[in-house]
Amino acid sequence: MTETREVVVGYDGSDFSMQALEWAMDEAELRQLPLRVAHAWRWPYGQAEEEAKLHLRKAAEHVLYHGADCARSCSSIAEVTADLYEGPAAERLVELSARAELVVVGSRGMGALARTVLGSVAGYVAAHACCPVVVVRGPGPIPVPLRRGAVVLGMAADTRDEAIGFAFGEADVRQLSLVAVRGVSLQPASWLSQGPPTTEPGTVAKTTEGEMAERLRPWQFRHPEVAVRIHGVAGPPKDVLADLSREASLVVVGGARGYGRLGSVTRSILQRSACAVAVVPVPALREEEDVAPAGVARAGAD
């Protein structure tokens, strides 16, 4: 019997986790999957009496049940589960990712003072989870825009099928267009020269777009309802994606390249994106195996 996958969301009662809960509710409804609302707690002061710990646990239960009740009352999700864990939140979310379709976490803006917040939970989960992770970004409640932005897929020469499949799947279920973009850094005439590049930017962009179109053709055939735009842009990939994120609903990038290390572009967009970011990991045991396109893939890389 096939195990039913689920959408997992980390929830701690903060405004940022409320953003994550809203996104996760959408995902569960669109995918018709159960939703698991997870909250972690732990006693931070060393040894303590069990009675003292019990008070903290009850407070944690109150936070968790509030989030789960919100999901039940504000959505049509058939099954909402409350998951209380004593220990590190990041550890529990990575554990749950092994049987999840998607993990959703909240994040605050990645300014100089806030980067450690991403590194402590969202960044760790994005680097170590077994399934795609959506880090929901932006100030305040998620707005309902009059004109919804596209799904932006950040591509590279070695983009994995899982990341492409996830991006097409999200665009399909959300009825959004997809913008596939690849930033190309132009090289100077020689390694000793600071002069103009050897190739015109327009020529490089056109060649790059042709390669991208060939790569995406099978996915476009499987998702005919998704309108696709392909852009090869002269410039650092991390800057190109950050610029596009201002008008996008979601940016999709590849995940860890091994041992929990995110690539520089992925790290940058997690810190700078103006919209939610989906990090799609590399399959641990299928590095060289071809993966057939699917509606929404469970893993991938940039």
UniProtKB/TrEMBL annotation:
It comes from the Bacteria. Pfam families: Usp (PF00582). Transmembrane segments: none annotated. Residues 5-137, 156-281 form the UspA domain. Belongs to the universal stress protein A family. This is Nucleotide-binding universal stress UspA family protein.
